[in-house]
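I need you to check the entry underneath: sequence plus fold tokens. Let me know what the token row says about the fold.

>
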Amino acid sequence: MFDPTAYRRLLFPALVFALLFAPSTFAQTVTGTIQGTVSDSRGAIVPGANVVIRNLDTGQERNLKTGGEGTYVAPFLPLGKYTVTVTTAGFNKVAQENIEVTLNQTRVINFTLQPSSLTEAVVVTPDAAPINTTNAEIKGTLNAQEIIDKPTFDKDRMSVRPGAPVNWSSLYMDSESATTPCLVTS
């Protein structure tokens, strides 16, 4: 016959066994990792370098930057073959192809960058400065219309009004002949 206590004795250890080993089955992944260090030809680390990891089968890319120690880490990559490319300013582009990522594997791919042979020249051409930079003097000429358009000081109202009437006699040195324009200041 059926003994319920014997059934409970068998069920409890089986349940404990299943619960103890169940997390290990969930912890397994079907991905891999690519990581490495980027340095220059003298062995100095290169922080901030651009790292592109491209899956050759799907074309998917993961873009990374190297950290302060010149390292990069790309976890949880789907299984397959990859190309890793490293670029940064002042160095030649470096790539490594056909890197096989297998189940739960971490591939270490280090790069050594060579300085680029391209040199840039910056050409500076001086333009005439509108300001005298030695004594901060601004010079220029105005025609008669520009003088009329400039704001004038209204002594009665203590305000500046653009387009105010101009006293032409004060604009000439000799108000009798009115031939030589100049601005009279007092």
About this structure: The beta strands are 31-40, 50-55, 61-65, 71-78, 80-87, 94-101, 106-108, 111-113, 152-154, 159-161. The CA atoms of residues 48 and 66 lie 5 Å apart.
